[in-house]
Amino acid sequence: MKTDMPKAEEYSLMESLESKNGRLGLGDSRVVLMTEQAYAFLLQVINEHAPQAIKYAFYDMGYRVGQELMGTLKDRADDPERAFKYFVETFRQAGYGDITVTSFDLSKPEARLRGTNLFESGLAKQSGIYRSPRTVDHYSRGMFAGFMSVLLGREVVCEEMACEFRGDGACEFIILPFST
Ligand SMILES: [Zn+2]
What we know:
The protein is α+β, with helices and mostly antiparallel strands. It has a single domain (35-177), classed as Trafficking protein particle complex subunit 3 (Muramoyl-pentapeptide Carboxypeptidase, domain 2), CATH 3.30.1380.20. Helices cover 41% and strands 22% of the residues. The strands form 2 sheets. It has a 4-stranded antiparallel β-sheet with strand order 4-5-7-6, with helices on one face. The radius of gyration is 16 Å and the shape is globular. The protein binds zinc ion. Zinc ion binds at residues 118, 121, 135-137, 160, 163-165, 171.
């Protein structure tokens, strides 16, 4: 990544995409488009084969992706809040949902996020796999935790405190150190 990257709110993920010879590229990474329906099928299949794994497997997958994404933004590690906002903007522009950082306190450390229209909340209804109200955005909270873990150089966890899926006004996330 270049060191003169634009501010989070000024950059366009779409302008960074390049489709050539059957390969869609985002910088050095290859990306593929996945429809919401395909992800709903994935949820259904895992639910049929290993239902107990959903919560942890998607969190862990998100965690690894978040760690990897932070690796691509290493040059921003000297300004953690800016790096985090850049990550959040990428999350929004990639279509995962609308997220805002409601607090970011490095002294604790603790961060809070508010999300609406998150893809997992919508999918949860579409997939029909949940019969009771619950928080469902495991991949997203995993990504937040993985990203912050690398950014802070210590292990953190992200919990979802409220979720649109169960009728709350928005999804609310808190990121905290794994241990004090
Ligand atoms: Zn949620």
